[in-house]
Amino acid sequence: MEYWEMPAEWSEEYLQTFEPVLHSVLRGYHVSNTNSEYQDLLQLGRILILETFQRLGGNPLEEQRYIYASYIKRGFTWICLREFSKENQQKMRECSDESLEFMLGSDSDIQGQLETSEELGKLYELLTPRQKKTLELFLEQSDSIKELAELEGRCKSKYYRDRQAIQKKYQQWIKGGNLNG
């Protein structure tokens, strides 16, 4: 007998008996009954209950009840995993689309970056050769001031003063002030 041909009272009785198994599996995955997909998953589980009756035959309300319950639990676990996997793949596709858009940027972002690069180039031209070398080392290395000064062959205090002078010029440049000081 097909499950859609079974009398309504039988299907209601089977659903009332085995639906707590579905709720148990959903609780195990921390899916609350307020979740938007809870009812969708529950409906898939109800169909599984009726299909299980059709496949295994017999009377699931008698001695085979535990076999039916374990079969339903295992089957519903796989259904949930498949649905969660589909959902996660969709989210990953959305995230990768967003990250691709971010990485490519819009035309206005690229134009802004070019303008900023040109402005920083102008600021770089205002630095002394020693300050340029100090800035390049500072940007390329992640070492401490002492280690950078040793790399450059200078004492720490002179390196520190150069770095402060660069910062001062940068701050003046940001404020639009005089860059010659």
Task: Produce the secondary structure layout.
Layout: H1 8-28, H2 38-56, H3 65-104, H4 107-125, H5 129-140, H6 145-152, H7 156-175
Helix pairs in contact: 1-2, 1-3, 2-3, 5-7, 6-7
Characteristics:
rod-shaped, 2 domains, 181 residues, mainly alpha
Description of the structure:
The protein is mainly α. The protein folds into two domains: 3-104, no CATH class; 107-175. The protein has helices at 8-28, 38-56, 65-104, 107-125, 129-140, 145-152, 156-175. Helix 1 (8-28) packs across helix 2 (38-56). The chain is rod-shaped, with a radius of gyration of 34 Å. The model has no long low-confidence stretch (mean pLDDT 76).
Brief rundown of the structure:
By secondary structure, this protein is mainly α. It contains 7 helices and no strands.
The largest β sheet comes out as: none
Give the integer mean of the pLDDT values.
76
Name the beta content range. under 5%
Given as residue ranges, the uncertain stretches (5+ residues, pLDDT < 50) are: none
Q: How many β-strands, per DSSP?
A: 0
Put simply, the count of helices is 7
Q: Tell me the radius of gyration.
A: 34 Å
General form: rod-shaped
Helix/strand structural class: mainly alpha
Cα(first) to Cα(last) distance is 94 Å
- Any idea how many domains? 2
The percent range for helix content is over 70%
In sequence order, what are the helices and strands, one letter per element? Answer: HHHHHHH
